[in-house]
Amino acid sequence: MRRTGALVLLSTLAHSSLVAPESLPRGVGPEFAKFYETKPTFPCIGNPSIVLAPSQINDNSCDCPDGSDEPGTAACAHLDALSPEQPLPGSLTGTTNTTSALPGFWCANDGHVGSYIPFMYVNDGVCDYDLCCDGSEEFAHVGGVACENRCGPIGKEYRRLEDERRQSKERSAKRRRTLVKEARELRRRVEAKVTNLKEELSGLEQKQVELQKKFEEVERSERGKVVRATEGGVGGKLGVLVGLAKTRVAELRDTLDKVLDQRDDLQDRVDQLEDILTKLREEYNPNFNDEGVKAAVKSWEDYAAGATAAGSKDAVADADVMEVLKEDSETSGINWAEFETEDGSSDADVVYNLEAYLPSFVRDYIHEKLNVVRVWMIENGILADNPKAGGESRLVTAAREALEAAKADSTSKTSTLQEQETDLRKDYGPDDIFRALKGKCVSSDVGEYEYELCWIDKTTQKSKKGHGNTNMGTFVRIDMEEADEEERTDGKGLGKGKRIVLRYDNGQGCWNGPNRRTDVWLACAETDELWRVSESEKCVYRMEIGTPAACEDVNEPRPATKDEL
Ligand code: MAN
């Protein structure tokens, strides 16, 4: 076997529906049969002006410039410059020479798949079973070489492998379909959530407007309430009065305190001015005939005489003020506690405090519901309003808390809605497929590390020596790139063609370098598998991963063999 790449050529030709009839000259492939039908003359395929006798076909002499008169010998092999080595993988003809009319010597390979072999290999004394399992290319038995027909077992093994490959493809495609279904369901759930949230938010908006209105109404009506003499205790009208009075007294005391501070400041300034004027009176030159200065000094002396008389009155007023400014307590001012405490609590308090006995996880919910009930009971006269001294009434508290709860609910739902809408706009790849894989991870041991990819999340390098984990990048986007790699015999490779590449960026900083990043190349496989990891340059990683998510959803027809045609 000269080259393992030969199978590529075999499979390329496997689907040909043309078969060379027996009567054709040796080496003619099915698609060229029409040029070799029995006629009195043979025009060269690429140069029809050159006409040969049929006897010149396969006479081991290269007469046509395109080699078409020697389909079954190596006489025109020189036309095809064998550099680089032939056949070229991925080239349809398997040759480099496009001027040659024929792609090579046709081996019919009955029982397997027909194939072209480079003319160079014809009668070279080597059995090229990978291309020509029927051994027909060594018909001259050069050096006594006789190539037996091995197409039976080779064809059988080929069909077995093809069948395995096809089944594996079908399984992969099926897994992909399952993933697509899961992704669709996940998307549907997010969409349903968005719809629900939008409905809830519009309801909440309406509710908020109503609660705001109610709160304002309650607040207004409570503010306007006039205290009437009733026999209420601390929770009754007297309680309200006590609260109001205490607040008022505190306000007056505050104001007085401020006024006192201002007065002291002004006094300081007056003292400073008096010092200046005293100095002026003592130091001015009376012999200097300045009428202005003399008048000022005179005025100052009059003022100073009057001020001495008023001084003692101020001292008395200060002491009084200080007394008033003292905090109210049991021993001075008003003893508010006497008015605030009440021995027996009313039956209604049980309802007010009921929630205190509940477990915390239901308290918030019950609190909101209780408030609604309380408000209703108070409004309907079943429950007495029970304001705390100096604070807002229970009715106002309940209305305010209900409004605040609705606002908080609305804020939290708006942020959830934004998250879900962002998620719906996010690119999860073809058919939204990576939505189904999100959060799942795949890992593999490579050298001193275990590498891990978490779909649409991050890539990680985990030290097996216990040096901790290194973030190799966080998912950013999905791209498509062209892969150009030899097919691997185990199928665990990228091969050739457009491939999905997931970009992971902005990982842990590299010492003296950029942040780590990873390009994750995907190829079709039956299960998720991290095939290999490489570090092309420092801290720039490349992962190659097999996954059904990268498969095409095709039900490939089974390749037909010559026997079946
Ligand atoms: C660690 C690993 C390597 C990386 C170096 C850079 O050893 O993350 O992959 O190349 O740091 O200093």
Give a written overview of the molecule.
The chain is an alpha+beta fold and 565 residues long. The strands form three sheets. It has an eight-stranded mixed beta sheet, with no helix packed on it. It has a two-stranded antiparallel ribbon with strand order 1-2. A hairpin with a 7-residue loop joins strand 3 and strand 4. It is elongated, with a radius of gyration of 50 Å. The N terminus and C terminus are likely disordered. The structure holds alpha-D-mannopyranose. Alpha-D-mannopyranose binds next to loops. InterPro entries: Gtb1-like (IPR039794), Man6P_isomerase_rcpt-bd_dom_sf (IPR009011), MRH_dom (IPR044865), PRKCSH (IPR036607), PRKCSH_N (IPR028146). Pfam families: PRKCSH-like (PF12999), PRKCSH_1 (PF13015). Keywords: Coiled coil, Disulfide bond, Endoplasmic reticulum, Signal. This is Glucosidase 2 subunit beta.
Runs with pLDDT <50, length 5+?
Answer: 3-20, 226-234, 555-565
Distance from N terminus to C terminus (CA atoms, Å) equals 27 Å
Number of helices: 9
Small-molecule binders here are:
alpha-D-mannopyranose
Shape: elongated
Give the class from helix and strand content and strand pairing: alpha+beta
Domain MRH: 439-553
Signal peptide: 1-21
Organism: Bombardia bombarda
Coiled coil: 169-221, 249-283
